[in-house]
Design a protein that fits this description.
The chain is α+β, with helices and mostly antiparallel strands and 269 residues long. The protein is built from 5 helices and 18 strands. An 8-stranded mixed beta sheet has the order 1-2-3-4-15-7-18-5, with helices on one face. A 3-stranded antiparallel beta sheet has the order 14-8-16.
Length: 269
């Protein structure tokens, strides 16, 4: 663990977790003063995924921390807790299954910006979450492929959630509104085709990009521990909930999500 000084001159106990994504920060999320919060936010924008170990957050605590980043995003088809409608209670299935890499709700015209997930009950084995850095994914493309990618838009929909009528069109490469970095913005779960192309015409290039997006060198896989809170930037990361835990085991999480803006590509950034 290293003491890292931010632009606010606050020293954070921060440990990088992988080559291009992820850091662990040892702070108490319930007692962050404004300067320390600003330092945490700065580190979050740099590392894309931040792990906060040894937390003991109530629902009020988690919601209060999330609100410091902006207005909360409410999933219209997924009701929250009775006492905290802003909190989604995530209970994933046991056993072995296959998921898809994705950024949350990209079928929305203004997809979420940030997700904050708190571990409440964990299995003895399995239940990890993978994260992939989409800045790194874009930067690893050849110059020719970068030029092609930034010229395209793609259609995203909620077909995998049985709501194909919910769709939105976004740039294939989006400019992060705070860092001004370019990130690949297509995913296996929700991206269906390129704008003004058919699904069949889109298939080859779209399959290449969505597979390229989560190459191992862009990734960090988090093995959850009791008390972990993990925050990731949906504008610059994809994630993958690994379904690999024993039958009869429980994986219970609380998620609070912060709203985002309409994705845009700004070539001057």
């Amino acid at each position: 663990m290293a003491e890292v000084k931010s632009e606010t001159n606050v020293e954070l106990a921060l440990t990088p977790l992988a080559g291009v994504i992820g850091a662990e920060i040892d702070v108490d999320l319930k007692t962050l003063d404004d300067a320390t919060f600003a330092a945490v936010h700065e580190a979050f924008l740099e590392y894309v995924v931040v792990v906060f170990p040894n937390q003991d957050l109530t629902g009020d605590d988690q919601v209060a921390f999330a609100r410091r980043f902006g207005e909360l995003y409410m999933f219209p088809h997924a009701p929250g807790l009775d006492a905290h409608p802003e909190i989604l209670h995530i209970r994933s299935r046991a056993g072995i299954g296959k998921g898809r890499w994705h950024s949350d709700a990209t079928f929305d015209a203004t997809p979420p910006a940030i997700s904050i997930l708190a571990a409440k009950e964990l299995p003895a084995l399995g239940g990890e979450t993978g994260f992939a850095n989409q800045y790194a994914a874009f930067e690893a493309l050849s110059p020719g492929m970068q030029r092609l990618a930034v010229s395209l838009n793609a259609v995203h929909d909620a077909r995998s959630h049985a709501r194909p009528e919910e769709d939105a069109t976004h740039p294939v490469v989006r400019t992060h509104p705070l860092t001004n970095r370019q990130a690949l913005f297509v995913n296996e779960e929700f991206t269906r085709r390129f704008e003004n192309m058919t699904v069949e015409e889109s298939r080859g290039l779209l399959s290449y990009l969505t597979t390229h997006a989560h190459q191992p060198e862009f990734c960090y896989v988090h093995r959850w521990r009791s008390g972990d809170v993990v925050m990731w930037d949906n504008r610059a990361a994809q994630h993958y909930p690994v379904q690999n835990r024993p039958e009869g085991s429980t994986r219970s999480m609380w998620r609070v999500t912060i709203g985002g803006d309409r994705p845009a590509y700004r070539p001057e950034a």
